[in-house]
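Appendix B, Record 12. Input sequence as logged:
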Amino acid sequence: MPTRSTTVLPWRVLSLLAGIVFCFIAGCGNGGATVITVFAAASLTDAFGEIAREFESANPGIEVKLNFAGSQRLRSQLEFGASADVFASADAAQMDLAKDAGLIAGAARPFAGSAMAVIVPEDSRIQKVSEIADPGVKLVLAHESVPAGRYSRLLLVRLSETDAGLGADFAERTLANVVSDETSVKFVEQKVVLGQADAGIVYRSGAMTAAATGSARELPLPPETNGVQALYPIAVLSDSAAPDWGEKFVQFVLSRPARDILASYGFDAP
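Logged structural output:
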């Protein structure tokens, strides 16, 4: 069995330090611009980068600062006092925890969804999803405290329940191949793209990004698989320094132009 590593032990300390550093850096905008700070799940990096540029273009004098990380780490940063205007999570669980902590103003609104996908390096010998359970395969997943980690493990359970011949113990055999639990789904994607892992489970949007590099490809899932769909909620934060602009950004994310951008990166409608 491969030796398993993890990078999540110091996450509370790292979250606090990252939040403090980010708040210091994001304290003022360019030329006195009004700054909106958005904490968003790492899987939204590319899509929200484009959405932020479109929002800034439509609103001169507004600057959007983006902070990407695992949703659980972002929530932790906010709980430790990091300042932001908007929180976009990769699942409802982290948003609910933020709301329970008094961090959310009003209701969170779903704005996107994403299926999960299994990716392998482009030149991998692995051709079928059944092979990720073979002995010796080095599999990377997001840690189970991360939304993508929970979704990934649920997908393996669903695959075990199919009639595709994978076997009722498919999830157990596959999890035995996990060599690293990552704090962000982006790190899973990067390890596969760089050839540091034989396979990984990511969001479909991440699979598209990885495939676009020419360094990874997605494995087809059995058609009878009861897939797993991630749901992304967004909300204005209760300590927002610019709540009106935070709400305008949320409304823009919910708009047709932003949803078209999200769709271009592999996200589904909620």
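Residues 11-28 have pLDDT under 50 and may be disordered.
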